[in-house]
Every structure is written in C-alpha cells, then in structure tokens.
Records
---
Amino acid sequence: MRRWISGAVAAALTLGLAACSDPAAETSAGTTVTWPEPTTKLDGVKLTIWAAQNSNTVPKKVVEGFQAATGATVEVVTIPDPYEQSIQTKVATGDKPDLAFWQPTASMLTAINAKTNLQPLTDAPWLPKLAPDLRDITGLLDGTRYAALVTSPAVEGVYYNKEVFAANGVTAAPKNFDEMVTLAQQLKGKGVTPFHEMGADRWATQWWVQVLLADEAKKGLWERINTGKEKFTDPAVLGAIKKYQELINAGLFNADIKTAKFEDQGAALLDGKAAMVVQVNSFFGQLQAKADTATLDSKVGFFPISESGNVGTFIPDQSNALVAFKTGDAKREAAARQLLAYWMGPGYSDFVTDRKTVSLQSAVPNPPGVPQALLDVHAALPAAAGSMQALAVANPDLYINLADMIAGTMTPEQVAQATQDQFAQLAKAAGATGF
Amino acid sequence: MPTAVDTPVPDRTLPRPPSAGAGRSATRAITRRTHPLWFLAPAFAILLVFFFLPTLFNFIYAFTDWSGFKAAINPVGFDNFTDLASNGTLFRALRITIVYAVLVAVFQNLFGFLLAVLLERDTRLNRLARVFFLIPVLMSALAVGYVFQALLKPDGGLNALIGTVLSRPFDYGWLADNTWTIVVVALIHSWKWMGLSMLIYLAGLKTIPDDVIEAARIDGATRWRTFWAIRSPLLAPAVTFNVATALLGSMNGFDIVQATTGGGPARTTEILNIFIYRTFGQGLFAQATTMSLILFLLVALMAFPVIHLLRKREEVLS
C-alpha cells in the first residue's frame, strides 16, 4: 500500500512538473510567409480577435465584410482592462487568439515575446499601398514585422479650446514650449485654468514629460537609455520631470489635479473650464463621444509641441494595430493573415468610412466627417519624435510615479530613481545588453 | 415492499465483544476494512495539484528568470531576492500589508464579538439578524468592493446622506486620503467577514456550561463580572481561531482592495498582492513569484508566534 501511494505521488509530481513548465515553448521560425488572396473562400473556419474595451468596435465593418466575402466566422472577444496585463497573463498560460489588438512598439512586441508567439508579417501585400513615411514607423522588432498598422498612430500633443483662446485674444498657437508656458501664465492672469491634468486616472501624466523629451528623443535619448549609457536619473529626464512639477507648483493646472479623472479632463476642455490638455488620440475619441464633428471643429484644435518647436511625439497604441498569433493550426494562421490582407486591402475603404478615421493609404481618400483636429494630428506624424513606448526596450510605470509626485508622496528624484530601477529590471528580463 | 430490516446486516460495522489482548488489533482491522487508506487518494490528488505543487513551484520559479519576454527559463540563484531587497517598493508593500492585516484583525474581531454578544439569545429576531449579518460573508468580495466604492465616491451615497443630515454639500473623498484610506478599506474588509467571526464567537458562547455561570451567580457575581471573569476567558479558543484567520487571511487580501482603490491613492493601499499582480502583469513572472514566496514565508513566520501566543491564553481552560 505504501509503495503504491509513493508511486502515485511520484507520478503525479512528474505529471504536474510537466504541466507547469512554460507552455509558450520556443518554436522555430524563419519560413517564408505566404499571403492568400483576401477573398479566398474560408467556409467553416472560425477566427477569434481579442480587443480591448476601447477597440472592440473598431473591426465591426471589416468583420462583416470578411464574413460575407469568405464565409469564415470571426468572433471579436473583449478582454477586460488592464488589457495588456490580461493578454500577457493569458498568453503566458498558453491561451492565444488568432488576432489581437496590440501596441505595435518594440517594447510591447518584446513584452508579448513576439519571436515565439507571433506570426511574422513579412512582405505583407498592403505595404506598398501605405504612405511611405508611415510604412516602417512602427510594428517592427529587430527588423521583422509583427504588427499591422490599421489606423493613424496616436501623437502626444496639445488639444486646446479654440473659444477660450479667442476670448482671451490668442490668435496663433504657441511655437514652442516656452511660448506655451508664457501663454499659460497670461491665461492664468485672466482667471482661466491653463492646463488640465488627471492625477487620479494617472496614465496621462507621462505625456508632459515625454513631450518635454521630444527634442532629446530625436537626438537618440532612448538608444542611450536602452544601452544603459544614460539613466532616467540623469539631467535630461530628471530635468523634464522637475519642469513638470514646477508648472504644477506654479498653479498652471486645475485645482483638482490630484483627484481629476479622464472623464473630467474631456468635460473640462469641451466646456472651456481649462484651455489646454496634453493628451493622445484616445482623449479625442472621448470628445467625439461627447460632441459631433461640427462642434469639435469649432471648439477643439490641436498643435504638437516640443522645447524647440512644433514637434509631436508619436505613440502608437493598442487600438492602432493588430498582431497575428502562432496558434499551431496552419489553416487558421493563414486565415488570420488573409483577414489582415482583406482589412488593409478590399475592406480598407469601408473601414475608414465606418470609423471616420484618417486613411493610411494614398489610394484611399479620407472619408468625409474626419474632424480637423485628427487631420492635424495625422499631419504631425511624419516629423514626430518617438515616445518612450515607441523607442525604449521596456515600458516602466513612469506615469504611476508621476501621479505619486502629483499626490505629494514622491519627489522628482524619487520618480526618476524608481522608474530607472524598474526599467533596468524589465530590460534585464527582456535580455537587453548592459543590464 | 421489502425493507432493509429484513435483509441480513453484515456484522462488520457492529462492535465485537472485547476480548483481552486482541482488542486493539481488532479495532484497527475494522478501521482498515471500513475506511481503506486509498479512500484518501482523490482528496490527496486535489491537494497535491492545487496546493502542494503550486507551493513547490513558488519555490522553484523564484530562483529563475521566467518572464513573458522569452521562452527559456534559466536559474539565476538569488538575483530576484537581492533585486527586491535593494528596491524600496517591496518593503513599503510589506509594511502596508501588515498594517492592513492588523487593522482587519482588530476590527473584524471587535465587530464579530459585539455582534455575538448582542445576538446571543435565541429569539426569533436575533436569528433573523444573524442571517443578515452572515450574508456579506457569502457575497463575492469584488461585489462588496464595488458596492462600497460606489457608496464612498465623493458624489456617492454616503456623502449625499451626510450632506442631507448637515444640510450642506459634503464631498469628502473617503477613498482618496493618503493616510486614512487604508483604515476605510480595512473596515470594509472587516464588514464583509464580521459575520463569520460572529458565528464562531456565538458557538464559543454556546459551549460555556450553564453550571459554571450558575455557580458564579450563586457566588454573587454581577452580570458584568460574570461576563469578564467567566465567559470571556472561556472564549479563548474562539479568539485564537478568529484572530489567526482574520490576520493571516487579510495578509493574503487582494479582491476588496483591488475593487475599492486598486492600491491608490498614491499607492498608500498597495498591499503586497496588488504589487505582485502588477509585477506579474508586466511579464516579470519570476519576480512576482519571488514576492509571493516572500509573502508565503511572512505569513508562515507570523502564524507560528501568533497562534502560539493565543494558545497560551487557552491554558486557563485546562
């Protein structure tokens, strides 16, 4: 009896050990990628797309068109927020969709272990049709393409209330960061809240620091940080953090900066309670949910900003791109590539019209009804500098530390140190040299 | 209809007449036959897969570089531990976890004890009240968290109520205070679990023999004196169980804090499990495992002295 039990225990332990080893085991890559015709029949094939709460309606039109054209079934599954964390956890345990919305930056492609988990999208048929300066802007990791950009990548810049500017005699947008600060001080003198920040929802706090780093980013700041030659605690980044704090201490932000949320920010800009907001495209998405294009065109404008001039900082996000997973089922993998080819091919015109979004393809014109601010954002793209998310090998929680600084529990030095420590930890885990 | 009465009953369940010398081995043989050891196998298999193996892997992965970034898992020795030790975040999270656990242990036992004393008599009303106080125990912790989050928002129900009473607008951010939010969250946690403490204290109160109380009364003790000198010392086993489960259970807390504050404001309620969750979500699986190993060791280290101390109090009973 005792021998029987110890035998069972040993067997169960071995079984358990095997079951608990990393399910995302390495598979060989490097075969050439074939691209099926976008409308080849796919009867009986079922594809799954993972999307976040703010991107699950994006593929609606494409899915309808693809299902009608090929006979395939496509299911869009909403993964709850925090989206990236949820997906990484699922993929780590071996659960994969056919396609998923994913931030197409090198750091986030590393974070999902693209080389093992994702299909390379080499020689995708839609690439020649993309506007040349957007073709290789993102989606690449070590020279291999893993993500398909479907919408115009987000840009960090300043959204402003045109009516507030006009009422205070401001006729032209500031030409650089210092001009913007001078303008803010003038507005404050007239009793207007110049800037709005959402300290409670935290994530937008990092845009200020990144915008201040745009010029440095163009001079290779992130390459130096990636190789450990420069740190967040060095003057460039620390200086930006300190400047952000100075602006807050100077009273240029909303009084409820510590408790304000994303929703409050949109309402504040639209109602003219604040003149300017440094934000990205998803903020404008919120405004679009609150007002129609005509109202937005008359009320809200956009200008990119950096220390030296009107330079934006681009940050492709999860709603801009899709990745295709290696599921091990060749038929479904090919179908997933076919869906992308359909999306960026025959389905693209319907897609941009449905989404009222800027077209990435020269041959597909912008649909009517795209707000002017979005066109301005898109126009800022070619000259834009890369954000931390776009260029750094890892994506530390800079925004959480900055929000803590706003709440008064961290100094700028502590913010820089905590961010650097975490960056080093992530970079080491990602196998970057120098850490 | 044939009944079981007519069928001959096998005699193996009947006690055999004791015979000198053979008595012990006979009982053993009976146990063997009626409860064979392999009956344990299903329970043991579940225990193995869901408790022993994960704990074992908790130890193994803490010494590797397992991450979401690559497929290979290599041993790295004590790297994860030294990294964490050099990083202040871990110690802050540990401190917050212990503060939280102690607060919960105090509040939960206080509330549970008061409820038990209040509802001790078996009246119809008391029985109904006990059921109502037990309902939160059965509720999903996340649901409890979200309900309280909605109630405690600056424009939530509680502030509206206070505003009506004071007849002026009241918009205190109950979950936005860097110092007091942890107390608020600990109170919510205690509210959810106080029904369980109440039940155990009630059971403790019921087991106190009537003759002891009667003797005290005959000796002329007041009700107050009886309560403090007789009844509360006799509750020692219940206190041991309640304090230990509340303290150690809330060390492993996650759901209520995640639903109410998510660790905020400014990470003042970021207990270790939330920190672990955040680290895991970034793909740093090995580091997250190391932290959970540290939590495991901390809970074990705290469990022994606490239970030992409380057991000492029980010695008055023997």
---
Amino acid sequence: MLLDYDRLGWLKVALLGFTALVAAFLLLPVVFIVLLSFGSSRWLAFPPPGWTLKWYQELFADPSWIEAALTSARIATMTAILAVAIALLASFALVRGQFRGREILRGLLLTPMVLPVVVFAIAIYAFFLQLGLGGTTIGFVIAHTVLALPFAIIPIATALEGFDKSIEDAAIVCGASPLQAKLRITLPSIRIGIFSAAIFSFLASWDEVVVAIFMASPTLQTLPVKIWSSLRSDLTPVIAAASSLLVALTLGLMIVTALLRRKLQT
Amino acid sequence: MSVQAQQGIATLRIPEGLGGLLPALILIGLFFVVPVLALLLRSVTDPAPGLQNYAALLGDGTYARVFFNTFLVAAVVTIVTVLVAFPVAWMLAIMPPALASILFGIIILSMWTNLLTRTYAWMVLLQRTGVINRALIGAGIIDQPLPLINNLTGVTIGMVYIMLPFMILPLVGTLRAIDPMTLRAAALCGASPLAAFRRILLPLSLPGIAAGGLMVFVMSLGYFVTPALLGGTSNMMLAEMIAQMIQSMLNWGLGSAAAFILLVVTMALYALQLRLVGSKRAVGGA
C-alpha cells in the first residue's frame, strides 16, 4: 500500500506537503537571485525598494565580465569537443573490447570524477607550473578535459551498451565498410548519448571553479573565477545579474535538451 | 581516387580493442596520474626527505580539529540529506508522471545552476541582515538575528542543497524497482503502515540509501567552494586548508601531505561504495 499513490490516505498529504517544501527549497535560491538582480538596492534589501536594470548595465559596461564569459565559453567548447571525441573512442573499446583489465581501465578513466577536485587542482597546478602551461588556454582545456572525461564516457558507453551490435554487422554484410557502418548506423543510433556527453562535459568545464582558481592568471580568468573573486570582496548585485544570466543559460540548455531528446527519440 | 586510397578508407576503422583507449589513457596517464603521483612524492620530499609533513599534520591539535570538523560536516550533511531526500524520492517514484516531471525539472534546474550562483544566493539569504533573518524577526519569532552563516548551520544548509539531487535521483530508481505487491501483501496480512515501512519498504531501499549516502559523504569530505564561502574560520574543512597551505602559505610539502590523506580516505570509501553497489551501477548513476 505504501507504494500505491492513490491508497496512501493521510500519509500522502503529509508526504506531498513535505515534497512541496523541498521543491520550494530547491527553487528558492534560483528564483531569489533572479528577483534580486532587478532590485534597486545596492545592499541587497529584499523585497527590493524598486526595480531597475542598472546592475545589468554595470555588468555589460565592464569588459572584464564579458571577457571572462567569452574565455569560459571558449574553454568549455574546446573541452566538450575534445572530451566527446576521446570518450567516443574509449567507449567502443570499453563496451566491445575483449581484453584483460578492461574493468580496471574503466575505473581508472572514471577516477577524476571521484577524486576531490582540490587534490587534482593542486597536482595539475604544480605540474603545469613546471611545464609552463599554467594560466594558458591549452592548460585550462587539458585540465578540464580530464575532469569532463568521465561525464562524457558514462552516457556514451551506456548508449552503446543499449545498442544492438548486430544491426551494425548487418550493414557490413550488406557491403558497408566497418567505418561506414559506424558512422551511418551506430553513431546516429547513440546520438542521445553523444549529445548528453557534450552537454555534461561543457557544463563540467563551464562551472568548474577549483582548478580554475589555481590556474587563472591576471590575463586569463574564467567566469567562475571572476564570480569567485567578486564574491570574496563584496556581495555586489552585479553578481546577481551575472548569476541570473547563468540561470537563463541553464534553463535554455534544459529546454534544448528536452526538445532534442523528444525529437531524437521519435 | 587511387585504388590504394580507396583501400585505405575501406580498412580505416574505429578500433574496438585497446587502441581506442589510447587517447584517453594518454590524457589520464600524463595529466592525471603523473601529476597526482608527483604530488604524493612531494609530500615526502619537500622540504626534506622523510615523513615529517605527515607527523606535523597528525601530531598537531589545530590540524586534528580540521580533520574532525571535516568528518563532522560530512556526516551531518549526509544524515540531513538522506532524511530529506527519502520522502521526496518516495513520492517521485509513485506520483503521476505529469507531476513527477515538474519535480524532476525543478531538481535538474537546481542541479545544473552554476555552483557559485547557488552559493552566492545562500550567502545573501543567510547573512545577518538577510531575507531569512528579516522574515523571522518580522514575524516576531526571534528578536535577534540568528547566526546562520560562517558556521556549521550555513555550511549544512548550503551543502545539503547541493547534495540533494545526488541522493534523490538514484533513490527514485531503487524505490521504483520495489514491487508494490510486496507492500500490498503486507497490508493484507494486517501490517500497520508503520510496520510495513519499517520491515519492508526501508530494508528494501537500504542498498540505495547506503550507496547514495556514501556518495554524498565522500563528495562532502573533499568539498571546497561551499564550505569556504558559507563556513567560518573556526570550522574550516580539509579542502580549504589544503588550498590555503598551497596558495597563501606556499607550503607545498604540508599541502601535498594533507591532499594525500584526503585522497586515501576518499578512495577507500569509494572502493567500499563499489563493493556495495557493483562497479557499473556506482558510476552509472551520475
């Protein structure tokens, strides 16, 4: 009975009430930050005494915010492309390969996801200082690709596991080369996995703070680093404006994902 | 196109053996394994060969407090997260699909929102003159603002907020896999709702709770951003201490040693989680 939604009785009311509270808790900061960004109070009074767009004007008038956003977008795009390409090759081997130690190698490739980021951050920071890659775009991309790789491998490998290999074999029997069969049969079939991998690895880089704090130089900083250093000095509403744009971006990504999934699945 | 070139394309293939793993292994080997091993080496060679860094870390009361505090925060966050997540996952598993998709949307939105954005929101909400304190004073519940930030309360609220999706989403899977018939049978046999919960629903969902809880605990142990911004100096956590040792004190030996301790504890708990859920499910849930 406890798992029958319609027969829970009073318990359903209590549990639904609690669930609604948790949903409100999850929404609260997101909604709050968006409202705050339009509030006219510099001291973040809430509810705001009036409404204004001046924090957005300040944000767009400051080239360092724009530059940080562009840097983040550039690094995250390169990271996503690199991570998906490497993960695609790795997934075929992990899912279909017959060799000893496959599970161990899979575990090794997924380790960056579980190791505390701060440990990796100081390790790669020290390493790049010696190589002269600290504070460079290429350094950022390499470090972020390491962190993004698990998030790219998991959806692609999962999609590949669910794909019936005999369809690919059938294409080869019908005269396709192995590469043609993969490009025209297998890859389109696992496109949802590839697409998820691209989104996740983009976000893994776009949102990454800890490695970025160590790697950033005065001339190269990503958006999270810019937010981080602004946060440490004061809680200016400009951060709320920047944050709201990030929320809008997240919502946009969610909608695109949902629409694409629906389209790809039919 | 020459015959040779055509043959070249015909035999070009995406490798399915070890070959395909090469780029990934080079990336992880060169830019993950080597730097982490180099860091470990540094912990026993900097400033002089020996174990003095570890001795300093483990023998000092200040550091012991940081270790204790790290475990305390991670434990509190895990317990609160499990308690809050369970009823939500329970409802999500059985509620009508239309309602569930709205709730899933909210969870994904909060999870995908920039980490710093969420933490910034909590900083503003929880500060002395923040919305929550004003609302409570306005409602006449308290006279003085409550200290909600730069202490354990602030870290717990901010961390639970971040960890909830990681607990709810896998738990929904566990709960959906339970056959509702088992609970109907219990009710038919005269079990009260409480007895059915305690003796059937809870034990059957325990593997999911344990796996999710362990994951939240491990993630909390090494968390840096949220504790650094919402916590106070008196309850600093390990990750923040490591960052400070490197960034402000430039004490690489001590910092690497602390990082290595964090690494060992995390990996040991992760291995435990793998044994609990089996290697594929543990990583597939993310």
